[in-house]
Structures are given as structure tokens and as C-alpha cells.
Amino acid sequence: MKKTVRLLTAALLAGYLLPSWADDAQELKTLLGQVKQFSAHFQQQVFDVEGQPLQQASGELLVSRPDRFRWETQQPDESLILSDGKSVWLYDPFVEQVSITTLADAVVNTPFLLISSTDPSLWARYDVLKEENAFTVTSKQKGQRIESLRLIFGQNGQLSRFEVNETQGQRSEFELSQYNAQPVVKAGTFRFEVPKGVTVDDQR
């Protein structure tokens, strides 16, 4: 009888806890899915393992769901992360090199690509925990370079900032401003043309 009670209690707890985690993930996906596309200006601050500021950066972000993403750093150095929905280009003009990976592989090292993703197989790799207006996204796979991604929403339901925490302790904080839910998206915005003289590292 006691064994039966213990099993029943465990089953009830599992039934109570698991939907909670699933609900948090679904709520996050619902919030992100309310806006099919948006643009914003970002300010990035990088901190070392002791919380001391290392560097700053800024640029422009453009998202078009599903899975299209353009992250263009303008200061202090130019770089580009671009997703066309299947592949991701990481372009560094300074070294004249572009690396190409599949979207699934890129998300591992660049988890904020999940902001534009509707792919259940990608989301299934992560746990989501809600705390007030913030959602912490953590990989289910151990040993990843990125420990967690934290997304913070304003009272209007818009994404206002996010944080990327690396396993080694370094942290990056991103503040979004000039949010536009109806940006003008030009033809070719999510298509990368390799500039002349640029080395291509295709890892797909």
C-alpha cells in the first residue's frame, strides 16, 4: 500500500512539474510569435568572469519569422550574422572570411537565433524557466559553450533585452531600442553574397 502511495505521489508530482516547464516554453514561443518581424538597435556590454566590463558594441538587428535573422554589428568593428532560414553566415570583414553552418548547428553557439525560430526540433533541445517577465533558456546538452540565454520582455510584451551567459563565466548583455514591429524588409536582406576575395569556410 505504501509503495502504491509513493508511486502515485511521484506520478502526481511529475504531472504537476512537467507541464509547468512546458507551459513556460510555450509562453515564450507565444510571446515571440506575436510579432512576425521586427527590427531594433542593440547595445552590447561584455563582462568578464569577475563581472568587470570588457568591451562594448552596437549595431542593428532584424528578425523575420520563421528562422530569418540579420544581426549586424557596426561598432567598434563590423561583423554580420545572417540566417536565410536554412543556413547561417558568420562574416568578419576584417579577416575577410565567412563561415557557413546549418541553422541547427549555429544555434548551439548562437542561441539567440532561437528568437526567430519556430522549429520544434530546435526548441526541444532547451529547457525554459519563467521568472516574472524573464525567461531563462538552458541547453539540455551538457558541455556547451553557452550556459544559458535570458530573454527579458517589457510591459508591452516586446523583447527589451537579453543576456548570454557562457560556461567559462563571461556574460554579454544586450539592450534593445528603436523597436519597430513593421520594418521595411528589402529583397535580398536575408541573402548573403560573398564579396570578392573573401575566404569561405563552408561547414554544412
Query: How far from one another are the termini?
Result: 56 Å
In order across it, which strands form the biggest sheet?
7-8-9-10-11-1-2-3-4-5-6-12
- Briefly note the structural class of the backbone: alpha+beta
What's the alpha carbon Rg, rounded to whole Å? 19 Å
User: Largest sheet, if any?
Assistant: 12 strands, mixed
By DSSP, the count of extended strands is 12
| Overall residue-averaged pLDDT value | 85
Q: How large a portion of the residues is in β-strands, by DSSP E?
A: 35-45%
Order of helices and strands: HEEEEEEHHEEEEEE
Helix content: 10-25%
User: Which spans of ≥5 residues are poorly predicted at pLDDT below 50?
Assistant: 1-21
Question: What does the overall shape look like?
Answer: globular
Q: How many DSSP H or I helices?
A: 3
